[in-house]
Design brief:
By secondary structure, this protein is of the alpha/beta class. The chain has helices at 31-42, 49-57, 61-68, 70-83, 101-110, 120-129, 142-157, 171-182, and strands at residues 3-12, 15-17, 20-24, 45-48, 89-92, 111-117, 162-165, 187-193. The chain has a single domain, classed as Rossmann fold (3-Layer(aba) Sandwich), CATH 3.40.50. A hairpin with a 2-residue loop joins strand 1 and strand 2. The longest helix has 16 residues, at 142-157.
């Protein structure tokens, strides 16, 4: 029996080179949940930088922030990006990964950056109902803090190679919209295995 698997990779001349798809956006934009679905339907491996740091450092992100501070956490994010290689991955990133210019260099080296744009009201609703702790929103006026962070980061997110509005879409529809947005930028490579 021959199984066919579709993989997407950038074609450079006649040589095919696997490139990662790096998901960017605010906390609550759906980078992790949509990323898992995107990886599944595209035959790619899903990676999450927050989960990778949790595994490597032995603490969840909110504890890393509390114990070491945001700057040390950002140092670990940068080191993690530098240690990665381009491959057929979907990489969900932390919302603040865009803050450091050196992270942009690394993300561009790894692949195509994709900004998941979601309207502020949807972000607020998702975060209000989330069980996941968000260290930068652990304040009494978290909604104001969210809007402030979004305002400060929006121009950075908009530097992404591709912007995809996923407001109002479920995870599957958002993943399909990302694939449609990548059409023409990434060429499918068909691999057959016995």
């Amino acid at each position: 029996m021959v199984r066919t698997k579709v993989r997407f990779s950038r074609i450079m001349g006649s040589r095919r080179m696997a490139r990662s798809w790096i998901l960017l956006g605010m906390m609550g934009a759906g980078k992790s949940s949509v990323g898992r679905v995107l990886a599944q339907i595209s035959g790619r491996t899903f990676l999450d930088t927050d989960s990778m740091l949790h595994h490597k450092l032995g603490r969840p992100v909110h504890q890393l922030f509390a114990v070491y501070g945001e700057e040390a956490f950002r140092d670990h994010e940068t080191y993690l990006l530098k240690s990665m290689q381009p491959d057929s991955n979907v990489i969900a990133t932390g919302g603040g990964i865009v803050l450091r210019p050196e992270n942009w260099v690394e993300m561009k080296r790894l692949g195509t950056t994709i900004f998941l744009n979601v309207d502020p009201a949807t972000l607020r609703d998702r975060l209000e109902n989330s069980k996941r702790r968000r260290p930068l929103l652990e304040t009494e006026n978290w909604e104001e803090r969210l809007l402030d962070l979004l305002e400060k980061r929006r121009s950075l997110y908009e530097q992404a190679d591709v912007t995809v509005d996923v407001t109002g879409l479920d995870q599957g529809a958002a993943a399909k919209r990302i694939l449609e947005s990548l059409d023409g930028r990434e060429a499918p490579c068909i691999e057959e295995s016995a």
